[in-house]
């Protein structure tokens, strides 16, 4: 299937590893030129070189900490200047501390919302006027299934994700008349560089050994395994494409049908 992405200009946040890197690889493979950001520019530039060599596409990089409003503005404006348009914005840079309410400090809650929610808002605030002026655009928001499948040991990511899902739908209602459409992608557990850290936190908060926690998440997924980054990236490439432009305000789950509430029951067995 031709995704009709050749020559499209895409911005991807948090693209130096994990899902963001996989999306950058998938979009350039489909013919997009991309602008990527992350805080660590050295690591980002190594990835950018890899992608340039593999795809032959234009890859612009800039260091940005999206918890800072000025960095988000600089990322969007410099990327627009470098690429000439913004057809696609992939909001991906995000994480929020896991943990039960008793362990979460004010700073933890602030961190959860500052990057995972406000980081997305900041990029949107600068990208949307550009998309409107050029006659349209596409926004893909990487959210997470915690927003709809709540769990008490991931209450902060759940809150940030629920806020993101609400924003995704609300903006779809507002910007359709400008031909800008939105989609939210809700992964469950995905094998990224930080999977080990997530399992450690889950073990601590659910009072389990590391090995037991590592086995618990796959047991809550009917397919019996967690996702690979390429599976999420391939879905995002299709959703970013003009073929999926009419998928607007929707949330697409990619979590193997995870039944998260099962994790609480399974922990005692
Ligand atoms: N992995 C999962 O199981 C999973 C499940 C559901 C949802 N998600 C969502 O999917 C997205 C990607 O997750 P991931 O697991 O691929 O993440 P990851 O492996 O931790 O990668 C995060 C990326 O974001 C960058 N980043 C981190 N903090 C940043 C900041 N303040 N400003 C700008 N960039 C920043 C990182 O680079 P630097 O450190 O150099 O900044 C890196 O490139 C996130 O929104 C996450 O919530 C992931």
Tags for this model:
10 helices; Rossmann fold; alpha/beta; 9 strands; two-stranded parallel sheet; binds NADP nicotinamide-adenine-dinucleotide phosphate; 49% helix; 269 residues
Write up this protein:
The longest helix is centred in the middle third of the chain and has 21 residues. The protein has a seven-stranded parallel beta sheet with strand order 3-2-1-4-5-6-9, with helices on both faces. A two-stranded parallel ribbon has the order 7-8. The chain has 269 residues and is α/β, with parallel strands linked by helices. It has one domain: NAD(P)-binding Rossmann-like Domain (Rossmann fold, 3-Layer(aba) Sandwich). Helix 7 crosses helix 8. It is globular and about 55 Å long. The mean pLDDT is 95. The chain is built from ten helices and nine strands. The N and C termini lie far apart (45 Å). The site of NADP nicotinamide-adenine-dinucleotide phosphate has 30 residues, from helix 1, strand 2 and helix 4.
- What percent of residues are in strands? 15-25%
Helix content: 40-55%
Q: What general form does the structure show? A: globular
Bound molecules: NADP nicotinamide-adenine-dinucleotide phosphate
Total number of β-strand segments?
A: 9
Number of helices: 10
Q: What's the helix-strand series?
A: EHEHEHEHHEHEEHHEHEH
CATH homologous superfamily identity: NAD(P)-binding Rossmann-like Domain
Instruction: Report the end-to-end length measured between terminal Cα atoms.
Output: 45 Å
Task: For the largest sheet, list the strands in their spatial order.
Answer: 3-2-1-4-5-6-9
On the 0 to 100 scale, the average pLDDT is: 95
Assembly context of the chains: single chain
Q: What is the CATH topology descriptor? A: Rossmann fold
Quickly count the domains: 1
CATH-derived architecture: 3-Layer(aba) Sandwich
Q: Which structural class do you get from the secondary structure elements?
A: alpha/beta
Q: How would you sum up the major sheet?
A: 7 strands, parallel
Query: Could you list the spans in which at least 5 consecutive residues all have pLDDT below 50?
Result: none
Cα gyration radius (Å): 18 Å
């Amino acid at each position: 299937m031709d995704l009709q992405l050749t020559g499209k200009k895409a911005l991807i946040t948090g693209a130096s590893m994990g899902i963001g890197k996989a999306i950058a690889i998938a979009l350039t493979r489909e013919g997009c030129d991309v602008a990527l950001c992350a805080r660590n520019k050295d690591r980002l530039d190594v990835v950018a070189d890899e992608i340039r060599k593999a795809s032959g596409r234009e890859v612009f990089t800039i260091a940005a900490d999206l918890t800072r409003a000025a960095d988000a503005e600089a990322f969007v404006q410099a990327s627009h200047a470098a690429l000439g348009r913004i057809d696609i914005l992939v909001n991906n840079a995000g994480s929020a501390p896991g943990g039960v309410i008793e362990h979460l400090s004010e700073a933890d809650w602030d961190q959860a919302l500052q990057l995972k929610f406000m980081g997305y808002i900041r990029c949107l605030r600068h990208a949307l006027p550009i998309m409107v002026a050029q006659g349209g655009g596409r926004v893909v928001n990487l959210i997470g299934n915690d927003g709809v499948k709540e769990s008490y040991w991931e209450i902060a990511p759940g809150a940030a994700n629920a806020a993101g899902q609400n924003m995704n739908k609300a903006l779809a209602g507002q910007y359709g008349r400008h031909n800008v459409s939105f989609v939210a992608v809700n992964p469950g557990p995905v094998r990224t560089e930080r999977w080990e850290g997530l399992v450690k936190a889950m073990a601590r908060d659910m009072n389990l050994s590391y090995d037991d926690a590592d086995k618990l998440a796959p047991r809550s997924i009917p397919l019996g395994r967690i996702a690979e980054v390429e599976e999420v990236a391939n879905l995002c490439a299709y959703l970013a494409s003009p073929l999926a432009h009419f998928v607007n305000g929707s949330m697409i789950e990619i979590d193997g049908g995870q039944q998260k509430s099962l994790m609480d029951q399974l922990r005692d067995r």
